[in-house]
Amino acid sequence: MTTRKTINLDPQRKGGLAKLLIPGFIILIIIMILSNTTFVTIDPGEKGIVFKRFSGGLDKEAAPLSQGFRVIMPWNKVYIYDIRMQEHFEKMTVLSKNGLNIEVELSCRYRPISAEIAYLHDEIGKDYLGTIILPELRSATREIIGKYLPDELYSTKRETIQLEIFERTKDKVEKNHLIIDDILIRGVKLPQTLQDAIERKLKEEQSSLEYEFRLTSERKEAERRLIEAQAKADANEILSKSLNEKILRDKGIEATLKLAESPNSKVVIVGGSDGLPLILNN
Question: What DSSP letter does each residue of 99-128 carry, written as one string?
């Protein structure tokens, strides 16, 4: 037969245990609260600004908190901003100069100015991409592309249009504590019939340029040959003017005597029809 023992706790011991648990529970709650409001970690590529609830709110002139572990007062609040370069891709349908719909894919690289994130937070907030950057980017894209024809955007003026969109957006955005690093046109989609027509036109222009290049090369070659022939003619004319019958006879006698000195057997007859020696081989 099993005997069960009942242990009765002394009421005083129960009261002592309760006195220990309650303070421990309170301390645990306080630690949990403080860990979320007092201890803050700022990761690499981030900056923090402190909102002082009871002493003036945001201190815009103070330097932002840099990366690392930070301790703040529990009644204050820290706002953390990513200050690294970020990239956004945007697809738009815009009208060209002649009223055709063009699909454009853009990319925009941007970041907050780290020293001014307190002003950025106070004036705009964390959704600065949707509040400032995208509206200005879309407005600039519609305005600039609306001044050009589709074939200019597709081929000849693409870099110019891209630069104009960048400058227009940059001027507007950088007044709001943000930096636009670059804007790129990554893709342009035209109606298929128009795209085919532009490609045919580009091929024809390329063929025309190649033909013009060949003509220019041949023209230059003809000019070169003409100059060379003229130079030879001028040289011959100058040479002929510098020679006379006596000089030619002396040169002929000189050459004959040199030939006569060679070991080959020959007969030299002095006094030909023109007064020059004759050389006859045996």
Answer: S-EEEEEEEEEEEE-GGGHHHHHHHT-S-H
Point out which residues pair with 180 in neighbouring strands: 110
Express each pLDDT in 115-147 by its tens digit. 999 999 999 999 999 999 999 999 999 999 889
Is the separation of the CB atoms in 119 and 175 below 8 Å? Answer: no
Q: Distances from the Cα of 81 to the Cαs of 1, 36, 44, 66, 272, in angstroms?
A: 72, 18, 11, 11, 110
Q: What is the largest CA-CA distance in the chain?
A: 167
The pLDDT tens digits of the residues spanning 107-121 come to 999 999 999 999 999
What is the DSSP secondary structure assignment for residue 84, as one 8-state letter?
A: S
Strand partners, 278: 269
Q: Per the CATH hierarchy, to which homologous superfamily does domain 86-190 belong?
A: Band 7 domain (3.30.479.30)
For residues 47-68, give the mean pLDDT: 82
Q: Determine the Cα–Cα distance for residues 241 and 239; give it in Å rounded to an integer.
A: 5
Binning the chain into helix, strand and coil, the percentages to the nearest 5 are 50, 25, 25
Higher pLDDT, 192 or 83: 83
pTM: 0.58
Rg (CA), the chain: 47
Residues 6+ apart with CB under 8 A from 166: 180, 182, 183
CA 193 – CA 104 distance, rounded (Å): 17
Q: Residue 137: what pLDDT?
A: 94
